[in-house]
């Protein structure tokens, strides 16, 4: 055992979210396919694109910090996605499943939000402004996504269930 430094933690968190963003790209593609509401399909497809740009920004963060891009298995995101897959295997597409897709994406976006909040704080503590700006851009976009999802959940037509 050794004492973790701030740099160790930053690296760990960066590799964790880098892994998570890759998992989420595939997951949001599957959620688009498993959704029946046209707006929701378009929403997931758009966020697949956006997630791709988050991955590119993370590569830039690795470069800014002089590290080669590496992944660290993110069991938190994997767990949420495993639950989604299990429900999906047992239930047909339709309004209830659409709603569950929104709820699952809210969970994963909240995970991302927290991960990016802490990474922005750690980058700031390290005095790495370039990394901080890149991470903050990803944070802002995922917060926007989360707020769009929350609006969809709020305005969901429960009578259709
Ligand atoms: Fe993201
Ligand atoms: Fe996201």
From TrEMBL:
Supply the PANTHER family for this chain: PROTEIN YCIF
Q: Which organism is it from?
A: Halomarina oriensis
Database matches in Pfam families: DUF892
The record's section on Gene3D superfamilies has: 1.20.1260.10
Q: What is this protein called?
A: DUF892 family protein
Q: InterPro entries from the entry?
A: DUF892_YciF-like (IPR010287), Ferritin-like (IPR012347), Ferritin-like_SF (IPR009078), YciF (IPR047114)
Note the SUPFAM superfamilies from the entry: Ferritin-like (SSF47240)
């Amino acid at each position: 055992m050794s004492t973790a430094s701030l740099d160790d933690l930053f690296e760990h968190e960066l590799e964790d979210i880098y892994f998570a963003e890759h998992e989420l790209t595939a997951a949001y593609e599957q959620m688009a396919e498993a959704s029946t509401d046209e707006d929701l399909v378009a929403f997931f497809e758009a966020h697949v694109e956006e997630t791709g740009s988050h991955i590119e920004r993370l590569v830039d963060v690795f470069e800014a910090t002089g590290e080669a891009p590496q992944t660290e298995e993110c069991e938190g995101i994997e767990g949420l996605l495993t639950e989604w897959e299990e429900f999906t295997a047992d239930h047909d597409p339709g309004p209830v499943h659409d709603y569950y897709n929104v709820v699952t994406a809210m969970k994963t976006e909240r995970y991302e939000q927290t991960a990016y909040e802490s990474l922005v704080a750690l980058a700031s503590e390290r005095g790495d402004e370039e990394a901080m700006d890149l991470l903050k851009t990803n944070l802002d976009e995922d917060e926007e996504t989360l707020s769009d999802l929350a609006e969809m959940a709020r305005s969901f037509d429960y009578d259709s269930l």
